[in-house]
UniProtKB/TrEMBL annotation, chain A:
This is Calcineurin-like EF-hand protein 2. Signal peptide: none annotated. Belongs to the calcineurin regulatory subunit family. CHP subfamily. It is found in: Cell membrane; Cytoplasm; Nucleus. Pfam families: EF-hand_7. Keywords: Calcium, Cell membrane, Cytoplasm, Lipoprotein, Membrane, Metal-binding, Myristate, Nucleus, Phosphoprotein, Protein transport, Repeat, Transport. It comes from the Eukaryota. GO terms for biological process: protein transport.
From TrEMBL, chain B:
Residues 779-793 have a biased composition (Polar residues). Residues 680-696 have a biased composition (Pro residues). It is found in: Cell membrane; Recycling endosome membrane. It is a multi-pass membrane protein. GO terms for molecular function: potassium:proton antiporter activity; sodium:proton antiporter activity. This is Sodium/hydrogen exchanger.
Length: 194, 824
């Protein structure tokens, strides 16, 4: 899978994307191929139905939210660079990169990964996961045999644990803190094998 | 035998001085003690009475330790790192064996080694093979004191277990070569050697897995004979070992995989008391065995008649094994890091090379050598003793300061918080989704596939029916509750008052001993055969994490504490596979939410506000109820679990249908003939206590009940009947459970007609196409519930009506859109 210059030209702003996301050119090409195969009508952008056609996502309890995460701020199309940027969150964290302080800005940094996950919970984007939002996620993940009551207790419990300023919601910092012992790098990383 | 007495009392004696044991690992002490004892015996009798007999070792001592290790091995951690483990075990051991063997031979040629040592190339290779294997007993013994982080531990420990296959093969191959004579070895024999390696390792694993299945299966039926459960466990695990040994396969591998495989199912099936028994007995036996091994090592060392000393050999061996281990580890890590998500750091590598301890296995193997065939046996024995002593004592003593000095990240002795469990599960889902989107067949994909297979076939086969329908996240939550309650009580608090309030924070929880469940992973801490109560009772709950597969929703028998069992179906009435139902549920939920997002945002926001209000109202009521239930829950659970399990057992299922049984009954029809009918039931007696409507209108997405009528004609195969879920014959049981419910003095719980989602489970009857990849058809069929819904009398007629209007116009549009996109 050689990356000839002609195929790289297919990808607009390839250099820019590589710099911002940390993907290598081989990765980008692969993702571009994938993008094109998802984009059945060859429109140059993806819309929700393209994602929904993926069978696996329909079986995923939070598949809907993840799809939504691709469509930022009310748009209903995703172009290639947004596609790549979102996926870049799941690159393994480069522990060794530290040049010019770009480490923090990479989407695959730990904070950015957590932020991404946080936004999956926080649907109304108010910066906090409220009890209802947590309930929704729990309900999606927990299946039908769990009763409402149980769900409520679980959510209650979770909020109790994490909520430090007692505002009955989990802010991003509280979220981060509650997960500080978790190995986010492993849990939120996919190896985009060539 | 006196050794048992000594073995039992030693740990107790040693731990008297806390400071002492933090510095000196137990194994060192034991060896020293052995030396002393051996000296005593020698002086008394002028000859050695006791020896570490290989047969005793391989038949009794080693299986105990390995069995304990395998049974309590954290499976998920093990499989996560399986690549690394296999690499180190196979490649690493081979590398070590060959290099050591060849270098020793070279050393002999060069004259470092004395002439007395009559060994040829093959002998040295043989010796290299048996001295190069990392020993599980020693690793356990030393690492349990050290507490490195779990990844590191599992890699070293896993390696020590898996390299048994390599060692066994090499050993046998070389022995046979030696017997035949170096000249007679042909090339074909080398290939046979390689082939036999494959056979030994894979065969050993297979044997172990077979026994694991048998064990799981048997424990499924031991409900009436609880008392023999622990015995069964021990027997089967030991049988796995013996069987593999019988066929000359890798016995350690067999036992390890038997333990790993059976653990999940056995722990779920057997009773609480049995679990405790199994755990404590295994730990005790393993501890005794380890003690005996080390003492005998000490004793055997003193017996001069058995060995002969050669400085050159000893020193060369020591040097070589250290060097080659280090080189091997570094090399392999470099390769592995290209594939691992989380690379192994330099520090890890140092610990790994330093932690490659040799132990009693090598000693037993060398004693097993035939002195006639291998002339240099005595020298080898002496060398092995020195090597083992050196690694266990010197390296054991110094590894702790080394770790501290290098600041190796240590194991955290804590259980996951509920936040972590939830989010970890969420991350799993996210990663699976990302892999789907990016078109990768990543690790999660395979793990999902395995989990699907497990849920569909294995769990059904091996798990007791009452067990395999629980939701694991709920179980996790239960465990955390129990822990809390116990710790609160321990602190002298009053459960009732404090349960609701300040539950102890996660940090402090770890220090409280618990008497609870099962499924503990001591290995996470590296604390294997230590009888320290504290250690044993710290249960990380890793198992729960591994099992939580919430996108494979399990039907029914949720272990709602001391209330009732809820199950959708009995086994007989489950026409479709579990997986299908689960997929359908998730799928429907997703479809519903997609539809909702499709609606214009203003509707969404509007509805959300409304439902938010409702939720607040409801959560209020729930909170009150929950506070009481939380109190009663934890305390009551341990006691009642057993009984509850008993009498609700034979899944004659009090199918307290979790359902929205709000329907007026039509004539209860029997199960699908055309495959499209769904039995109906008269609505439950108004018994369902207290706030019937209460917690059932959850939030936005669930609030809107399935679509009503006015959609296009549903696809033909869809049921046109209502959406009853409780099969007829189970209604009896349901009624019973309702009445028993009421008799329980705890706060009235909604009899669970509360899941509107479940009402969407209309499509019970169909022998429908199993897969959902044409979402279009499924989506279309879901809508068919619509007409039926309108027939019934809902619990929330008012609410529904509001939704209805909004949804009507949008649905058609959404349908069209869906079908368009889902056509491929």
């Amino acid at each position: 899978m050689g990356s000839s210059s002609s195929s790289r030209n297919k990808i607009p702003n390839a250099q820019e994307l590589m710099r911002q996301t940390g993907f290598s050119s081989a990765h980008l090409l692969r993702l571009h191929d994938r993008f094109e195969s998802l984009d059945r009508d060859n429109r140059g952008y993806l819309s929700p139905d393209d994602f929904e056609a993926l069978g696996g996502l329909a079986m995923n309890p939070i598949g809907g939210r993840i799809i939504e995460a691709f469509f930022s701020s009310g748009q209903d199309t995703v172009d290639f660079s947004s596609f790549v940027r979102i996926l870049a969150h799941f690159r393994p964290t480069d522990r060794n990169r530290n040049k010019e302080g770009t480490q923090q800005e990479l989407p695959s940094s730990r904070t950015r990964k957590l932020k991404f996950a946080f936004q999956l919970y926080d649907l109304d984007r108010d910066g906090k996961i409220s009890r209802e939002e947590l309930l929704q996620v729990l309900r999606a993940m927990l299946g039908l045999q769990v009763t409402e009551e149980q769900l409520q207790s679980i959510a209650e419990r979770a909020i109790q644990e994490a909520d430090l300023d007692k505002d009955d919601a989990i802010s991003f910092d509280e979220f981060k803190k509650s997960l500080e012992k978790m190995d986010i790098d492993t849990k939120m990383s996919v190896s985009f094998l060539k | 035998m006196p050794c048992f007495v000594i073995g039992a009392s030693c740990p107790a004696v040693f731990h008297f001085s806390q400071r002492f044991t933090t510095v000196v690992p137990e194994s060192c002490m034991l060896i020293l003690l052995g030396l002393v004892l051996g000296g005593v015996v020698l002086i008394a009798n002028k000859k050695q009475l006791y020896q570490l007999e290989p047969s005793l070792f391989f038949l009794f001592l080693l299986p105990t330790i390995v069995g304990d290790a395998g049974y309590f091995m954290p499976a998920r951690l093990f499989f996560d790192n399986l690549g690394a483990i296999l690499t180190y075990a196979v490649v690493g051991t081979l590398w070590n064996a060959f290099c050591t063997g060849f270098s020793l031979y070279a050393a002999k040629l060069l004259g470092f080694i004395d002439e007395h040592v009559q060994a040829e190339m093959l002998d040295f290779l043989l010796f290299g093979a048996l001295i190069s294997a990392v020993d599980p007993v020693a690793v356990l013994a030393v690492f349990e004191e050290v507490h490195v982080n779990e990844t590191l531990f599992i890699i070293v420990f896993g390696e020590s277990l898996v390299n048994d296959a390599v060692t066994v093969v090499l050993y046998k191959v070389y022995i046979s070569f030696v017997e035949v004579g170096a000249e007679n070895v042909q090339t074909a024999d080398y290939f046979k050697g390689v082939a036999s390696f494959l056979i030994v390792s894979i065969g050993g694993t297979m044997v172990g897995l077979i026994f694991a299945v048998i064990l799981g299966f048997i424990t499924r039926f031991t409900k009436k004979v609880r008392i023999i459960e622990p015995l069964l466990v021990f027997l089967m695990v030991y049988l796995a070992y013996l069987t593999a040994e019988l066929f000359s396969l890798s016995a350690i591998l067999s036992m390890t995989f038997c333990g790993i495989g059976a653990n999940k199912y056995v722990e779920a099936n057997i009773s609480q008391k049995s679990r405790t028994t199994v755990k404590y007995t295994m730990k005790t036996l393993a501890s005794i065995a380890e003690t005996i091994i080390f003492i005998f090592l000490g004793i055997s060392a003193v017996d001069k008649s058995k060995w002969a000393w050669d400085t050159g050999l000893v020193s060369c061996t020591l040097v070589f094994i250290l060097i080659f281990r280090a080189v091997g580890v570094v090399g392999q890590t470099w390769v592995l890091n290209r594939f691992r998500l989380v690379p192994l750091e330099k520090i890890d590598q140092v610990v790994m090379s330093y932690g490659g301890l040799r132990g009693a296995v090598a000693f037993a193997l060398v004693v097993l050598l035939d002195g006639e065939q291998v002339k240099a046996k005595d020298y080898f024995v002496a060398t092995t003793i020195v090597v083992v002593f050196f690694t266990v004592m010197f390296q054991g003593l110094t590894i702790k300061p080394l770790v501290k000095w290098l600041k190796v990240p240590r194991a955290t002795n804590r259980k996951p918080t509920i936040n972590e469990e939830i989010h970890e599960r969420a991350f799993d889902h996210i990663l699976t989704a990302v892999e789907d989107i990016a078109g990768l067949q990543g690790y999660h994909h395979w793990r999902d596939k395995w989990e699907q297979f497990d849920k569909n076939y294995l769990s059904k086969l091996l798990l007791r029916k009452s067990v395999y329908r629980k939701s694991e996240l709920w179980e996790a939550y239960q465990k955390i509750n129990i822990r809390d309650a116990i710790s609160v009580i321990d602190q002298g608090g009053n459960v009732l008052t404090s349960a609701r309030l300040s539950l102890p924070s996660m940090a402090s929880r770890a220090s409280f001993p618990e008497v609870t469940n099962v499924t503990n992973y001591l290995r996470e801490n590296g604390s294997g055969v230590c009888l320290d109560l504290q250690v044993i009772d710290n249960i990380p709950g890793a198992k729960v994490e591994e099992d939580m597969e919430t996108h494979h929703v399990l039907a029914g028998n949720l272990y709602k504490p001391r209330r009732r069992y809820q199950s959708h179906y009995s086994r007989h009435f489950m026409p479709l596979g579990e997986q299908e139902r689960q997929d359908r549920e998730v799928f429907q939920r997703n479809m519903r939410s997609r539809m909702e997002t499709f609606k214009s945002t203003r509707y969404k926001r509007h509805k959300k506000e409304r439902s938010l209000k409702k939720v607040r109202r409801i959560s209020h009521r729930n909170n009150r109820r929950d506070s009481l239930s939380l109190c009663s829950d934890p305390v009551v659970v341990p006691v009642e679990t057993e009984d509850k399990a008993e009498h609700s057992d034979p899944e004659k299922d009090e199918d307290v249908g979790i359902t929205f049984i709000a329907r007026k009954a039509e004539t209860p029809k029997q199960r699908p003939k055309s495959g499209c009918q769904i039995p109906l039931l008269p609505p439950p007696p108004p018994a369902p206590p207290s706030p019937p409507p209460a917690p059932s209108s959850p939030t936005s997405e669930d609030s809107h009940l399935p679509w009503k009528g006015s959609l296009g004609s549903p696809p033909p195969c869809v049921s046109l009947e209502a959406t009853k879920i409780i099969p007829v014959d189970l209604q009896q049981a349901w009624n019973q459970s309702i009445s028993s419910l009421e008799s329980i003095s705890s706060p009235p719980a909604p009899a669970e007609p509360i899941h509107p989602r479940v009402s969407a489970l209309s499509r019970l009857g169909g022998p429908r196409p199993a897969s959902y990849t044409p979402p279009g058809s499924a989506a279309g069929s879901t809508f068919s519930i619509g007409p039926q819904v309108s027939q019934g009398s809902f619990l929330f007629p008012d609410k529904k009506k509001e939704e209805e209007e909004e949804e009507e116009d949008v649905e058609g549009e959404w349908l069209r859109r869906c079908s368009r996109s889902c056509l491929p």
